[in-house]
């Protein structure tokens, strides 16, 4: 039985321990959910998230779009891309489905002539990879 003097320390230790365990559980769940989302998105798009992140930089998408936590992705010409997977419409006219996202990324001028988004020669594989990357940005 702890002495009266040590009770505050004991209670503080218990609270800190409980918070730490809860945080570890949340972190583990978050990592599992992120891995599960990545696997689902890669299966749905036939793209690779990591390659999409690289292709996002290769085509300088961040020059026009913002994505939190991505270095250099601080453009203000196009819309921010975090949460793009939850949007109903992309490119101002297409239902937000993987095939449409890939088409928009690869041929924006074909979809919406005169749009500010330029044709950049994005390959089919890079459009799949960028779509996979974007669909994981919640």
Polypeptide structure, described:
It is a single chain. The chain is mainly alpha-helical and about 140 residues long. It has one domain: Orthogonal Bundle (Cytochrome Bc1 Complex, Chain D, domain 2). Helices cover about 55% and strands about 5% of the residues. The chain has five helices and two strands. It has helices at about 5-45, 50-60, 100-105, 110, 125-135, and strands at about 90, 95. It has a two-stranded antiparallel sheet. The radius of gyration is 22 Å and the shape is globular. Mean pLDDT is about 85; it is low at about 10-30.
SSE layout and pairing:
Elements: H1 7-45, H2 49-58, E1 89-90, E2 94-95, H3 98-106, H4 108-111, H5 124-135
Helix pairs in contact: 1-5, 2-5, 3-5
């Amino acid at each position: 039985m702890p002495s009266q003097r040590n009770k505050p320390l004991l209670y503080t230790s218990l609270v800190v321990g409980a918070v730490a365990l809860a945080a570890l559980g949340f972190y583990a769940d978050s990592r599992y959910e992120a891995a599960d989302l990545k696997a689902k998105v890669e299966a749905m798009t036939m793209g690779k998230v990591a390659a999409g992140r690289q292709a996002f930089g290769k085509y300088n998408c961040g020059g026009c779009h913002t994505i939190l936590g991505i270095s250099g992705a601080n453009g203000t010409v196009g819309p921010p891309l975090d949460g793009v997977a939850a949007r109903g419409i992309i490119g101002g006219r297409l239902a937000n489905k993987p095939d449409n996202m890939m088409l928009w990324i690869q041929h924006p001028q074909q979809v919406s002539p005169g749009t500010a988004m330029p044709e950049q020669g994005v390959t089919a594989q890079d459009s799949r990879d960028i779509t996979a990357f974007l669909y994981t940005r919640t």
